Amino acid sequence: MFFFSSTLLLAATCLLVRAAEKVTTCNPDTVHRLSCDLDGVISVQSALYGRVDSVTCSEEEPPNQISNTDCSLEGIGDAVKKRCDGKMVCELNKNDLTASDPCTDTAKYLQTTYTCLPAIHRVTCEHSVAYLQCDQGQVIFVYGADYGRRDKSTCVYGRPESQIENSVCSNPTVKVADSCNGKNSCIIKASNSVFGDPCVGTYKYLEVAYACQYPVVSPDESV
Fold this sequence. Notes:
With 223 residues, the chain is of the alpha+beta class. It has helices spanning 6-12, 76-84, 94-97, 175-180, 192-195, 219-222, and strands at residues 21-25, 32-35, 40-51, 71-72, 89-92, 109-118, 120-125, 129-133, 139-149, 169-173, 185-189, 205-213. The termini are far apart. The relative contact order is 0.21.
């Protein structure tokens, strides 16, 4: 996952240009897919696993399985945020999030509301250097960064299968934000020496999602 601090998300609200989207998956065992365009990353607003009305996903369901409209699994919002925040595409199902059943004999659904934050997305292979750059007068605003491996297709050229087979290797980090926020440009190396090694023997990469914005000047500074 990407690390989204509350401070970053508060400041990012002024950058939102897309309306919130809601995705509902009636069969929670099937794929629940969130996605943004190439110039955006996911920011989960809320998520529900259960049932809060008798209309959603009610087709072909017997009345006794849609009558309980006070059914919601606690903590599901945080679980979806952990899996999806900062990604351009996120696919998951109920089994990825929990094995608990908040209400037996009730037809449940998985529902997520999210927005797409406008962002520049950078991927840098291990041992290479990431360059973050903004136009003149603008500064970097890092939404989040992740060092590890989350698929078998990124940064794979010339690598043996043994170095890319582990695609569940994720180490969210605030080091990029700490180093680059507020600067016009920033250089940071994608290496274990900087971010630690979340999966020994796996060839990793650094993913960064950031925006360029004009620095906010406080009233005291403008005097």
